[in-house]
Amino acid sequence: MAKPTDIRIQEVRHWTHTIDYRTPIKFGGRVVTSATLVNVRVTVETRDGRQGVGCGSMPMGNAWGWPSQAVTTDQTLQALLDTAERYSQRAGELGISGDPLELTHALSEGLASDASVACSALPESMPRLAQLVACSPTDAAIHDAFGKALGQSCYRVLDQAHCNRDLAAYLTPEFAGEYLQQYTSPEPVPSLPLYHLVGALDPLTDADLAERLGDGLPETLGEWILADELTHLKIKLAGDDLPWDVARVAAVERAAVVAQTQLGRTTWCYSLDFNEKCANVEYVLEFLAKLAEASPAALERVQYIEQPTHRDLRANPENRMHEAAKIKPVVIDESLVDLESLQLAREQGYSGVALKACKGHSEALLMGAAAQKYGLFLCVQDLTCVGASFLHSASLAARVPTVAAIEGNGRQYCPAGNAPWAAKFPGMFQIRGGRVQTSELNGPGLGGWSFDDAGDQ
User: Fold this and answer.
1) Predicted structure pTM score
2) For the segment 48-83, what is each residue's pLDDT rounded down to a tens digit?
3) Where in the chain do CATH 3.20.20.120 domains reside?
4) Would you identify the CATH topology of the domain 7-183?
5) Hey, what CATH topology would domain 192-451 get?
6) DSSP category for residue 419
7) N or C, where is the chain less crowded by C-beta within 10 Å?
8) Are residues 266 and 253 in contact, defined by beta-carbon separation less than 8 angstroms?
9) How far, in Å, CA of 33 to CA of 277, rounded?
10) Which residues are bridge partners to 30 per DSSP?
11) Which residues of 31-61 are buried (b: 16+ CB within 10 A; e: fewer)?
């Protein structure tokens, strides 16, 4: 049934900007030195005449979403930018009224076509993961505009009073009669621990520094731990060099112990990210066994393992995670693009899910609901999100029950993208006690920010 709160998109504005990284980041064998963000501003009007203007922003992350051997990095980035623009243009021409889930669902049906046109001159089609990244700024802006039109947080309007269909329309019949309200919290948790990234190129101690940047920010892991009082470290690993991987985690542990001892702390956590480079689960099991020998304390601190083997689960059915998941939670990340992939991951032994705002706000909410119903471990990660995209990611983490921490490495690699936002959200960008103050994200829409807060960058 139509509701007076249903929105119709009136106008969409779309623009991009690129920010150089402070230092490069290496993952999955690739080095990234800049971020190109797509920003979208959406104006909507409800059936009963209320207007709202919402914003969405996301780095395109093509090196992560589309790691290709056949297409250059510049080509994949341009294809994502073209797809993002086509998607936002279609949003402006959608011409129907509904709640944000309905509108983004209708738009998603044309996403593959948008990507196909953008890739018409390329020798390779765009993966679904990259397609989701391209549409995510517009999807976020629609949800944000809906909340602002109603003068409420987006997370307070996920109930039957504001949604025209239950979750069975988007997931499976077992969700009949259920709404996202049952799987989210209307208020953000006051704060969340921040997962700090330890990249493969990142110096752990002074001995690892060839020369200092001298920009006033920490430059070694130990310095970051002391400056931000970090409690959660995400360690990037090679996945195809077992001795290096074991030695790297042991080295991180040694550096962390020195800094944490200065803070008087004995408890902290690690997550391990192999970026899909492990040939099979046997590599993971051998790694865990050797880490237990080299640094049992480090193994004890591991909270979860992220997507160790190839993202194409269907093409690699032998990569079953049951044995590894008995030791530590193993979460699906790059493979998670829809409910079918989530169900397949469960069959293959994955015990957790990494939610990402860069896959679309609607998609993240739906996968979060499914993960909770299936009793899976949940975490929220980012895509070196900065500014509005980080605020969006953190707002999601702060309202999905059981999420224990939020990843945020933009302050390390791309602090220039955060600087315009820090005055209004100091607790989100100035880390104290290793935590972000998600209580600041309590305004209308996705948290109460707009591009005006950062000079419409």
Assistant:
1) 0.96
2) 999 999 999 999 999 999 999 999 999 999 999 999
3) 192-451
4) Enolase-like; domain 1 (3.30.390)
5) TIM Barrel (3.20.20)
6) G
7) N
8) no
9) 21
10) 27
11) ebeebbbbbbbbbbbbeeeeebbbbbbbbbb
